[in-house]
Amino acid sequence: MAESYPVYGQDRPRRRWGRRLLITAIVLLLVLAGLLVVADRVAANYAEDRIADEVRQQVAQQQLHSSPPSVTVGGFPFLTQVLDGRYRSIGIVLRDVRGEVSGASVRLPQLDVEARDVIASLDTLRSGQGDVIARTVDGKATISYESVAEFIKQPGVQLSEQNGKLAVTAPLQVLNSQVTVRGTADLTVADGQVRLRFAELAADGLPRIPAAQALVNAYAQQISVAVPLPKLPFRLDVREVRPTPDGLAVTATATDVPINGVA
């Protein structure tokens, strides 16, 4: 009986064919994943454009002016949020916000708004009818020191931040001599205003007489003013203010806010 020997190489075509099927399946999965990512991004861009239109209307209703808003819908994937009708967060950036308050111009170089836990149905986004409600909204902005100085209405006033405090430097005429006064202010927020209170001012070379110090104290009262804030969109209520190198940073919050239709 003749002996049989194995023939090497017969399984190679089958193995190559199986490897090709695996590679083809992987490529198809990658292409499908890419298409899903593209579709998800297209849907997010559509929603961002619709929300940006609503923000423009709110800004106009508040008689404010700004550059076109930038809107970013957070969370991935976006389409699952659409189906659920609930969005984790929506970021809104308004640049060069300007408004008139008490005859003076108040400028916010940038207003950053984050709306969280936003409720919006697919029909609302598609038709523009219905409410888009954010459970919480936080806003951050900076008021330029030039805008604040307009309300003080005293020549030569320079405002800045020093060691976390609002500092002032200004020229003052005292008994036929010009001195430079310096000091810091206490900041509070009430009734939609930022209140500046300069309790004590010091002056280099001030004559050591009561009349000279009385003039400085009177000047401190003159520059202690209330700066009214423009009515912010999304019903934002200012809660905190603090000095920074760029200006007065304000923090505002609101709850259960309509993102569309109501200012």
Describe the structure.
- By secondary structure, the chain is α+β, with helices and mostly antiparallel strands.
- It contains five helices and twelve strands.
- The protein is elongated.
- What is the overall shape? elongated
Helix content: 25-40%
**DSSP summary: helix tally:** 5
* Largest sheet properties: 6 strands, antiparallel
Question: Which spans of ≥5 residues are poorly predicted at pLDDT below 50?
Answer: none
Mean pLDDT: 78
- Walk across the major sheet and give the strand order: 1-2-3-4-12-11
Binned strand content:
35-45%
Tally the beta strands: 12
In short:
InterPro entries: DUF2993. With 263 residues, the chain is an alpha+beta fold. Helix content is 32%, strand content 41%.
List keywords for this structure.
six-stranded antiparallel beta sheet, alpha+beta, 5 helices, transmembrane, 41% strand, 263 residues
Question: Secondary-structure map with pairings?
Answer:
Blueprint: H1 12-61, E1 70-73, H2 78-84, E2 86-101, E3 104-119, H3 122-127, E4 133-143, H4 145-152, E5 158-162, E6 165-174, E7 177-190, E8 193-197, E9 201-203, H5 210-222, E10 226-228, E11 237-244, E12 247-258
Antiparallel strand pairs: 1-2, 2-3, 3-4, 4-12, 5-6, 6-7, 7-8, 7-9, 8-10, 11-12
